[in-house]
Every structure is written in structure tokens, then in C-alpha cells.
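Need a sequence for this fold. Nothing fancy.
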């Protein structure tokens, strides 16, 4: 969708979020506002049935995040250790389901 040497352009940021979500093992949102690009990324993750990890601060401060918390594969973490634990769980599920071809975590 974008050439490797294409410069960042504001109109492409939201499209890029869809790609980031699709190619990632999980999307992790550590800081976001009600109208942020991170909200867009989170929405793509849920739409694409990709795991989404929100920090507890994001989940508590944003109405959109509160609405996502009860969705499948949406996790809330309060520490880096908890994020790591959730990622380990996601990796285990993917390995069990035979879908270990994801490129990584964004």
C-alpha cells in the first residue's frame, strides 16, 4: 500500500494503522485520547479480530476503550509484567492453533 521510501503524510496515518494491526501479533495502546490515532488502531484490531492490549489508564480514561474492554481478545494491563504475561498467553494460543506466522508485536 505504501512504498518503503514514502514520506509520512497525515492522510495515510489511519490507513497505516490498519496495516499495523493486520501484521502484528497484538496491538498495544499505552496512551490515547478520545480522538487519537491509537483509537483508530484499536478499532482496526477489534475489526480484524486481532488481540488488543490497553493499559488500565487508557481503559479508564476513554469511553471508546471502556466499550471495547468486554470484547473478545481485548485485554487490560496495569504493568509491563502484565503485558508480557498477556503476550505469552497470546503466543501460546497462536502456537496451539497453528497460526504462528505473525511478524511480531507493534
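Here you go.
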Amino acid at each position: 500500500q505504501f512504498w518503503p521510501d514514502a514520506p509520512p503524510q497525515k492522510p495515510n496515518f489511519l490507513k497505516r494503522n490498519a496495516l499495523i494491526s493486520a501484521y502484528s501479533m497484538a496491538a498495544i495502546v499505552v496512551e490515547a485520547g478520545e480522538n487519537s490515532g491509537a483509537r483508530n488502531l484499536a478499532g482496526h484490531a477489534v475489526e480484524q479480530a486481532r488481540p488488543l492490549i490497553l493499559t488500565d489508564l487508557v481503559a479508564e480514561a476513554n469511553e471508546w476503550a471502556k466499550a471495547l474492554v468486554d470484547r473478545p481478545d481485548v485485554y487490560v494491563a496495569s504493568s509491563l509484567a502484565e503485558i508480557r504475561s498477556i503476550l505469552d498467553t497470546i503466543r501460546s494460543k497462536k502456537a496451539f492453533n497453528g497460526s504462528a506466522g505473525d511478524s511480531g508485536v507493534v
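For context: The chain has a mean pLDDT of 89.
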